[in-house]
C-alpha cells in the first residue's frame, strides 16, 4: 500500500476510501450515508458528532472504524459523575527511592488517535467542556503545562436526542468544533433483517485494517490541494451569511433562527466538498459537492429561537431552503 503523500493520486484516494467503506460494510449493515459522512470528516481532519436513539450502532460504527484504520483507539463513556480530569488526566504525587516527592502527569484516555466520546451529552457541561482545547488545539493543558496529543487526532462522539431523559445540551462552543453532525436513521425492515442474521448467528466477522494514520494523512494532504473555483467559494460565503437573521432575506431564518453558522461552517463545507469531489473522481469542487455536505456541516451550527423550537422546526429544513434560495452567481 503506497502511503507517500506525493504519490497519492485521485484514483489511489478513491481506492483507499472504497476499501475502508467496504471493510466497514462487512460489519455495519446499511448506514452508507452515515459511514460516508464520517469518513469525509476524518479525511478532512475534523471531529464528528453522531446523533440517534440508542441501539442504532453508533458506538459499533466508531469501534469498527478504529479497527479498519489501525489507529490507537480510546473509549470514554460519558456519565453524569464523569470529571474533566477523568478525560484529560491529572498530576499525581510520586515518591522516589531517595524519598524525594515530585508530581508526574498521568495521561488520560484523551491521549489516543481516535477517541470515542460515547453518549457525550450524558455528562455535565463542565465535563463536556474539557474537550474544547483538545478538539481545537490538539493539546491538553494541566497545571500550567501543555501536552500535545498524538497525530492524527479525531473525536467521534455519539449522543442521544436531547428529548431523552438524562441528557444535557452541548455548549454551542463545543458544537461548533465538530466538523459534521450526522443523524443516524433507524434501519429499514430489510436492513433490520440482515442485522438480526449477522448478530444472532454463529458466524462472526473479522475486521482487518486497510489503512493507517500515514495513509489518512496522505489523503488529507491531497484533499487540501483540490482547487475551489472563486464563484463556488463566494457562494459558500453567501450561504453562511444567509444563516444569520440580521443578514438574510430568508423568511425561515428570520423567523426561526437565533444564531447562524460561524466561519467554521464555511471551512467544514469547503473541506467536505473537496473530499466529495475526489470521491467522485474529480479534482475540482462543484455546487453539487457543496449541497452534498451542507446539512452535515451546518445543522448543529444553526441555533433555533424559542419559536423554532416550539414548532419543531428542523435545521435541515432551513438549510434545504437556503440551498434553493441563495443565488449561485
Tell me about this structure.
The chain has 329 residues and is of the alpha/beta class. It folds into two domains: 1-223, Rossmann fold (3-Layer(aba) Sandwich), CATH 3.40.50; 226-329, Orthogonal Bundle (Helicase, Ruva Protein, domain 3). Helix content is 44%, strand content 16%. It has 15 helices and eleven strands. The protein has helices spanning 10-25, 32-43, 58-68, 85-88, 125-128, 132-137, 172-175, 189-200, 213-224, 230-241, 251-256, 263-279, 287-298, 306-310, 315-325; strands at 47-51, 73-77, 89-95, 101-107, 114-118, 139-142, 145-148, 154-159, 178-183, 257-259, 303-304. The protein has a five-stranded parallel beta sheet with strand order 2-5-8-1-9. It has a two-stranded antiparallel ribbon with strand order 3-4. A hairpin with a 2-residue loop joins strand 6 (139-142) and strand 7 (145-148). Helix 1 crosses helix 2, helix 10 (230-241) packs across helix 12 and helix 12 packs across helix 13 (287-298). The longest helix is centred in the C-terminal third of the chain and has 17 residues, at 263-279. It is globular. Residues 1-6 have low confidence and may be disordered.
Amino acid at each position: 500500500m503506497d502511503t507517500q503523500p506525493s504519490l497519492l493520486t485521485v484514483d489511489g484516494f478513491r481506492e483507499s476510501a472504497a476499501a475502508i467503506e467496504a471493510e466497514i460494510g462487512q460489519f455495519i449493515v446499511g448506514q452508507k450515508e452515515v459511514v460516508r459522512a464520517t469518513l469525509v470528516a476524518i479525511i478532512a481532519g475534523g471531529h464528528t458528532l453522531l446523533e440517534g436513539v440508542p441501539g442504532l450502532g453508533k458506538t459499533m460504527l466508531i469501534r469498527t472504524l478504529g479497527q479498519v484504520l489501525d489507529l490507537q483507539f480510546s473509549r470514554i463513556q460519558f456519565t453524569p459523575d464523569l470529571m474533566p480530569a477523568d478525560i484529560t488526566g491529572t498530576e499525581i504525587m510520586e515518591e522516589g527511592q531517595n524519598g524525594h516527592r515530585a508530581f508526574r502527569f498521568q495521561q488520560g484516555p484523551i491521549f489516543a488517535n481516535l477517541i470515542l466520546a460515547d453518549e457525550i451529552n450524558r455528562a455535565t457541561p463542565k465535563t463536556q467542556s474539557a474537550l474544547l482545547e483538545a478538539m481545537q488545539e490538539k493539546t491538553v493543558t494541566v497545571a500550567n503545562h501543555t501536552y500535545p496529543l498524538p497525530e492524527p487526532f479525531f473525536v467521534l462522539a455519539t449522543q442521544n436526542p436531547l428529548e431523552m431523559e438524562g441528557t444535557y445540551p452541548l455548549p454551542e462552543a463545543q458544537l461548533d468544533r465538530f466538523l459534521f453532525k450526522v443523524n443516524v436513521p433507524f434501519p429499514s425492515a430489510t436492513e433490520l433483517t440482515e442485522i438480526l442474521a449477522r448478530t444472532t448467528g454463529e458466524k462472526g466477522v473479522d475486521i482487518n485494517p486497510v489503512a493507517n494514520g500515514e495513509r489518512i494523512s496522505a489523503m488529507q494532504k491531497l484533499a487540501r490541494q483540490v482547487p475551489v473555483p472563486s464563484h463556488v467559494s463566494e457562494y459558500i460565503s453567501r450561504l453562511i451569511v444567509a444563516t444569520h437573521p440580521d443578514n438574510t432575506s430568508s423568511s425561515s431564518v428570520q423567523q426561526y433562527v437565533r444564531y447562524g453558522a460561524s466561519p467554521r461552517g464555511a471551512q467544514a463545507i469547503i473541506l467536505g466538498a473537496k473530499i466529495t469531489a475526489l470521491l467522485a473522481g474529480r479534482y475540482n469542487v462543484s455546487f453539487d459537492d457543496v449541497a452534498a455536505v451542507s446539512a452535515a456541516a451546518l445543522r448543529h451550527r444553526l441555533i433555533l429561537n424559542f419559536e423554532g423550537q416550539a414548532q419543531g422546526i428542523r435545521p435541515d429544513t432551513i438549510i434545504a431552503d437556503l440551498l434553493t434560495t441563495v443565488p449561485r452567481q
